[in-house]
TrEMBL record:
TM stretches of this protein: none
Annotated CDD domains: ALDH_F6_MMSDH (cd07085)
Molecular function via GO: malonate-semialdehyde dehydrogenase (acetylating) activity; methylmalonate-semialdehyde dehydrogenase (acylating, NAD) activity
GO process annotations (BP): L-valine catabolic process; thymine catabolic process
EC number(s) reported in the record: 1.2.1.18, 1.2.1.27
Residue span, Aldehyde dehydrogenase domain: 16-482
Designated name of the protein: Malonate-semialdehyde dehydrogenase (Acetylating)/methylmalonate-semialdehyde dehydrogenase
Protein family (similarity comment): Belongs to the aldehyde dehydrogenase family.
Domain of life according to the entry: Bacteria
Keywords noted in UniProt: Oxidoreductase
Length: 504
């Protein structure tokens, strides 16, 4: 199969990059190279920013109802091309078919939210007649300008074209997306659909590039804000550097989500939830469940049930609809995960299920790892504290609710957390006292729908306003308050004006 030469997308046009830096795009299921993505040059990134800045002039003054109509068309096209985009995600990322489809659906969901932008903007405004002796005051929200989105490899549809783009442009801004060079194809195809839907040239621009070129965006005078998803180290750097130049930032970062399993939880049903949450998307998601904290009294039974179910998972290529666990993104990442497994063993964890050295017949060169379970992980082991980003489940054991909750809250990350119990008191206490920003009660992956924010805490998030929901509207707009007064005939005759007549 011929290797496709990819282009970048600026001002409504696909262009060949002049860069000599090329990143191979793999099909993780086979290990073969399917495309080559040039990393855009500094000039090409500047070109994208200039195009976005120019497009902002007219797009920002386009009526919200007109922008919403275009977003409705975007949504329609995404629905029409769902299977095509699903295959594209499966091919370049390695998610199993239903997971890849979910990735695209999670790009459609925020697009639907953006279709309601006139109502969302109106609901964020306020007006008061006679705010003070004849003065009327109104607050409304207006777009800021050009935003930069910096996206990772693991959700090539949902993150750049769901979390970042729809609300940004629906609010009247324009965007320059630095998508992952490992998984650029889905975003580039969706950008093409945006153009077909009537999104004006320059409103959406896509420039895969290296960190060197991306660094420019943090200080570029024409960039008003940065939205980022990736590692905590990079997220903190982006937050710190971009804030220095007055940019607003939302940085969604690493996680080490924990679930507390109490002794009244139904064993088999809970095990099934853990399997889904831990091994879905091969563990390559910040809302994966890589750690469970289980009460001692049921630990052995639960571990046995998890091992039994995990052993029966069908490992295979992403586009085989019978596969339940697909490959990881590339061999480098696979080796990194294997190193973490070996680190856990050296730290004293008990390896009760080994997913190394998995070979899939007919796909021997694919980047596969089987489900892996490390039991008796303790708080002093780094394997249970740091993000692995792979199909590895760590099991910690606790005496009771308080012991388990304390163990969980000691972790520096706090994207999500969950509890499995039939006890309403403990469920309520957990929801109130857990550090996790997104909480599941008998729900392993507590990601809310798009009308709510993706709400990470602690070192899982840097910024003030999260993505999606009303936070998303506020992040992509600036509040403006206007006070006015109109004079009747008597007021026109006034010859003295006081600053202290009620306006402040």
């Amino acid at each position: 199969m011929a290797i496709k030469k990819l282009q970048y997308f600026v001002n409504g046009t696909f262009k060949d990059s002049k860069s000599t830096k090329i990143v191979n795009v793999y099909d993780p299921s086979t290990g073969s190279i399917i495309a080559e993505m040039p990393c855009c040059t500094e000039d090409e990134v500047n070109e994208a920013v200039a195009a976005a800045k120019n497009a902002f002039k007219s797009w920002s003054t386009t009526a919200p109802s007109k922008r919403a109509a275009i977003m409705f068309k975007v949504k329609e096209l995404l629905d029409t091309h769902l299977d095509e985009l699903t295959m594209m995600v499966a091919k370049e990322n390695g998610k199993c078919w239903e997971e890849a489809k979910g990735d695209v659906l999670k790009a459609i969901e925020p697009t639907e939210l953006a279709c309601g932008i006139p109502s969302l903007l109106a609901s964020e405004g306020e007006a008061l007649f006679d705010a003070s002796r004849g003065y009327d005051t109104i607050r409304y929200r207006e777009p800021l300008g050009v935003f930069a989105g910096i996206a990772p490899f693991n959700f090539p549809a949902m993150i750049p074209m769901g979390w970042m783009t729809p609300m940004c442009i629906a609010c009247g801004n324009t965007i320059v997306l630095k998508v992952s060079s490992n998984t650029p194809m889905t975003s580039l195809r969706i950008a093409e659909l945006y153009k077909e839907a009537g999104v004006p040239d320059g409103v959406v621009n896509i420039v895969p590039c290296t960190r060197n070129e991306a660094e420019m965006l943090l200080s570029h005078p024409d960039i008003k804000g940065i939205t980022f998803v990736g590692t905590t180290t990079v997220g903190l750097h982006i937050y710190s550097e971009a804030a220095k130049t007055g940019k607003r930032v939302q940085a969604l970062c690493e996680a080490k989500n924990h679930a507390l399993i109490l002794e009244d939880a139904p064993i088999d049903r809970t095990a099934a939830s853990i399997i889904n949450a831990s091994y879905g998307c091969a563990g390559e998601r910040c809302m994966a469940l890589p750690v469970i904290v289980v009460q001692d009294s049921i630990a052995d039974k639960l571990v046995a049930a998890i091992v039994d179910q995990a052993k029966n998972m069908k490992i295979g290529p992403a586009y085989d609809k019978n596969s339940k666990l697909g490959p990881v993104i590339d061999d480098k990442h696979r080796q990194r995960i294997i190193a973490w497994i070996e680190k856990g063993i050296s730290e004293g964890a008990k390896l009760v299920l080994d997913g190394r050295n998995i070979i899939v017949d007919g796909y021997e060169n694919g980047f596969y790892l089987g489900p892996t379970i490390l039991d008796h992980v303790t708080s002093d082991m780094t394997v249970g504290q740091r993000e692995i980003f792979g199909p590895v489940l760590c099991i910690k054991r606790c005496k009771d609710f308080e012991d388990g909750l304390n163990m969980m809250n000691a972790n520096p990350f706090a994207n999500g957390s969950a509890i499995f119990t039939q006890n309403g008191h403990y469920a309520r206490e957990f929801a109130r006292r857990t550090d996790g920003g997104m909480v599941g009660i008998n729900v392993g992956i507590p990601v809310p729908i798009g009308m709510f924010p993706f709400n990470g805490h602690k070192q899982s998030f840097f910024g003030d306003l999260h993505c999606l929901g009303r936070d998303g509207v506020r992040f992509y707009t600036e509040s403006k308050v206007v006070t006015s007064r109109w004079f009747d005939e008597e007021a026109k005759k006034e010859k003295e004006v006081s600053t202290w007549d009620g306006t402040i």
